[in-house]
Amino acid sequence: MVRSLQLYKSFALLFALLTVSVNASVYLIQPSENSYEEIQQALIQAQPGDTVRLTAGRFQLADSLSLDVDGVTLEGEGRDVTILDFTNQLSGAQGLAVTSNDIRLLDFAVENAKGDAIKVKGSKNIHFIRVRTEWTNGPDSNNGAYGLYPVESENVLIDDCVAIGASDAGIYVGQSSNIIVRNSLAKHNVAGIEIENSFFADVHDNVAIENTGGILVFDLPDLPQQGGHHVRVFQNNVTNNNTPNFAPEGNIVGEVPSGTGIMVMANSFVEIFNNNIENNGTAGIAIVSYADEYEDKEYYPHPKSIQIHHNTFSKNGLNPDIESNDLAKILYDLSEGNMADIFWDGMLPLPQMLFGQPQTEKLIIEETDTISLLVLDPIKYILPFFDPIKTDQKEFKGIVRPLEAVKIDAIL
Hints:
37% strand
């Protein structure tokens, strides 16, 4: 009886898939004076399983596009030839806003959106494949905040994408779960790739180059989802992230020093391994607590259970951002100019600063002896006659316990 029920469910699913495939429509749209109306009408009329296909060309758009129908594919002919151009955008907060499930976005570009390029909210199963977002005038505080911007979503795949020129984060995934960001390029953003207040994320085989900070893993207070955890950052090329910070005043990423390779703030169970981290002027990897004031009593501002191992470091800390960033200046003064590959601010709850962290929450570093380390002891920092700096990697050696890989269900 059980087997018969399983077979029935399998046949029912197959029938549903075949029905969608047979009845699916393709809306083919070329650039014209009515591009906005034609694309938006297709996104409204589309049914689950349908495809809105944009030909090669530049689509001049003056208003935001929106998609709220499940199971739709929006595709172009290539991220360098199918371009949604919002340079003359007059209204709308995004280039494209998506609020539906089972969505595939592929092979097109969004340029010069007035606000965020592509914002996805509350979506289950959202795939960005070979998509480019860019502000073509280079780093500028007037650029939109985010390029690829899924929030409050589940099963997020960002694959072979490009994000350039965002005044906050080029690729940002926030308050989400089950996330893969891979094979992508983030360049000339404040934050190249940012995972914020999210659970279970793999960030791998990406290039984060010439941003202010290459890859950020943050957890912030006063958000619906907190306690970011289980994030793996591996096999990325994180180099030359020395662009001056151009975030608008008041943005949290405005506090990131120029020259930061990878930064972890207030997250737990983060594994950073097999990355190439090179020529980041302030630090290769920075582990920090959230330092601003907050009212959220449930928020835990300190990182814990961070593992760093088998990375390649070269020429980091040679040009720290001491002119415009307080953290970089403090590090420079404490180290007497000998900036480190890896920095930890040492901030913990007071009992742990006095008596030590639980064993399962300790920072683990398994790197070659040639890497440089700078760990601040906050208690000794405020007392006279004590050296507040630790530089011996041996104190942080331990058993690496690899995190599990993230798995994402395919979009049917």
